[in-house]
Design brief:
By secondary structure, the chain is α/β, with parallel strands linked by helices. It contains eight helices and ten strands. The protein binds adenine.
């Protein structure tokens, strides 16, 4: 049986995940609660990541070293970066859309001129890919959930956040130790990393740890804001009403599909 880590960036999301586990047992290490249980015939270890790249790397390392996990899934929220044109709805990343990561970069890593900007020293890499098979399954699970968002969120929430046409995007996610909450900052990120779909604070750290240990990794983020001057508006409400529910629903669908192989 494969042991799979489920790393949540949000309290509400972890609570929703724990509700899916019938038999979880808690172990406390490094100030974190790790919940070992079962879901769709897979052994899972669920944990709250905490915020920022160091917290994420510590969480991921404990999952490998103390729990022997063989795969990792990360879910949470992110700020949307891709604006797209008015007539270009496909690249536009909107609040309530889901982004499945295909690669991660640390947007605040800069050891130049000794190493190229963004490169993680001594790895020769700037971009850390996610696992293709797990990410394909995750994108499929996300699309399944978005066929009928109201089944997961309820009609009222779908209407309130205009989620009827929510979409799944796949590509680059940028991580850094900063909540991006001004237009100036998000515009600078768009110029520096034009293909980045979204920005958050942990994914690239987990991707790097998984790369170092040779573990398959997949990640999905619900877009909670546009990483601009309105980025803080109603954040807790959105995470509770939308992101936490999407995270748990996609996880459920993903594990169900994986357990068929
Ligand atoms: N997570 C969610 N929104 C974010 C933002 N705007 N910046 C960084 N991390 C985020």
């Amino acid at each position: 049986m494969t042991r799979i880590a489920i790393i949540s960036a949000l309290h509400d999301e972890l609570s929703a995940v724990l509700q899916l586990l019938p038999d979880e047992q808690k172990t406390r290490i490094a100030g974190r609660d790790f919940w070992v249980g079962h879901l769709h015939g897979q052994e899972v270890v669920a944990v709250l990541c905490r915020i920022g790249k160091v917290a994420a790397a510590t969480t991921a390392t404990v999952l490998v070293e103390r729990f022997g996990v063989q795969q990792m899934l990360f879910t949470g929220v992110a700020g949307g970066l891709q604006v797209g044109g008015e007539g270009d709805p496909h690249t536009r990343v909107r609040v309530g859309d889901l982004v499945v990561a295909r690669e991660f970069i640390q947007h605040d890593l800069d050891a130049s001129p000794i190493f190229p900007r963004y490169e993680v020293p001594l790895t020769g890499m700037s971009r850390f890919p996610t696992d293709a098979r797990l990410s394909d399954a995750l994108a499929h699970a996300a699309s399944q959930v978005l066929i009928d968002p109201a089944a997961t969120l309820g009609n009222e929430v779908v209407a309130r956040y205009h989620l009827q046409a929510a979409r799944v995007h796949q590509g680059l996610i940028a991580s850094g130790d900063r909540f991006v909450s001004s237009h100036t900052e998000s515009q600078a990120l768009r110029l520096a990393l034009p293909d980045a779909l979204a920005v958050e604070m942990e994914g690239a750290a987990v991707a790097q740890v998984c790369h170092d240990y040779g573990l398959p990794f997949a990640a999905m983020r619900t877009i909670s804001d546009r990483a601009d001057d309105h980025a803080h508006v109603d954040f807790p409400r959105f995470t509770a009403e939308v992101a936490a529910r999407y995270g748990a629903a996609v996880l459920d669908e993903w594990l169900q599909a994986l357990s068929k192989y």
